[in-house]
Amino acid sequence: MQNAFEQYFNSLQGKRIVVLGLGVSNRPLVRLLLEHGCHVTGCDRTEREKLDAEVLELEKQGAELRVGADYLENLQADLVFRTPGMHPGNPALVMLRDSGATVTSEMEVFFELCPCHMIAITGSDGKTTTTTLVSELLKAEGKKVWLGGNIGTPLLSSVPEMTEDDYAVVELSSFQLMDMQRSAKRCVVTNLAPNHLDVHKDMQEYIDAKKNVFRYQSEDGLLVVNADNDITAPMTGNGETRYFSRKNRIENGVCCHDGVIYRVKDGAEQKVMDAKDILIPGVHNIENYMAAIAVTDGLVSDESIRNVAKTFGGVQHRIELIRVKDGVRFYNDSIASSPSRTISGLRSFPEPVILIAGGYDKHIPYDVLGPEICAHVKKLFLTGATAQKIYDAVVGCAEYEQGKPEIVMMDDFAETVRAAAASAKDGDVVLLSPASASFDRFKNFEVRGNFFRQLVMEL
Fold this sequence. Notes:
31% helix, alpha/beta, 6-stranded mixed sheet, 9-stranded mixed sheet, 15 helices
């Protein structure tokens, strides 16, 4: 008897299938479809001469490639897999729907076919660390965990290896959630702040997309939200809603006060651990732990939580210590693609830092960043498309005093990093925390962070 996975892919034989975007998440999908005898057209805006070997190999395996500037022209399909970065309202997708095509995504099909327990995490900031923490907590308890989604690992091709006793822990972006019509039984919204407004038509669309992470839960679902965030605090799920808070006591969920993290049920607090035992720095990581503790309640022991907290060193590109040279500490926080993320990074250090910021413009406001930079930065190095916007936010805020911080604007990223390093003295912190996406110069934040690491190691 065929399982749900085989039934689904065998049902696609003979259908015209278009896969939009040939990035990391969709390549295993194309191979799966080809293995099941499907006619696949892979579409990507990258010009043919810039395609990497893995994409060209898909063509050798039988996929038709439509690439370059006109990759969306005159498409016909029975089924379309949308890449996360393409808005569901894209005119090409609208035309395909109008012609009778069904539009789905690799992630939505994974939700449909996944046989194991699922925990989903989204938010503007902290979702990758929280997702990784949930995975680490479950693994510490001896459970088999499949970690993926927006965190970088596509999971659909691994479904045949999963069992109903396993756990799938998935990070979901607003792009993945925009047209999602399924929700995990347990989910988290870490926080919400303006982000990706270069893709979303407005802030409300962004919020609505995030709400899809829990919108389709049943009455036995669990939603965990940040009680300290004005946008997430009013959210409630169809089942149980728990909260986490670093600022206030709560009735149900997890809170932190007087340096202690407590699990709370009906107002009764039970100590889980001391916040100081968390190895990774920053109050935002206390919040990430609280979210992870709340969503794994009943699945993970307090002993496992304490052990992970004392040993987990964090995720790459998230306030990652690169090296100490001549008494100067260099930190890579390339993941910080929004002002709120950089603010969390700045607040992680007791001393004023030398900050490197700027990058691709997502059309989000930077006003909130100005006062934080004045409070936490001794010298500011700006580069990239948002350099002027960040400069204006700093010098235009009430807290700014002439030369405090000193601001240096430079065009070249590498020269900016070298100049920041040259200005540092024993005891200083040099922090790359761009408050901006990477796409003006780099493929993604990982490439930007790795280049920063390379530059620092060459000093």
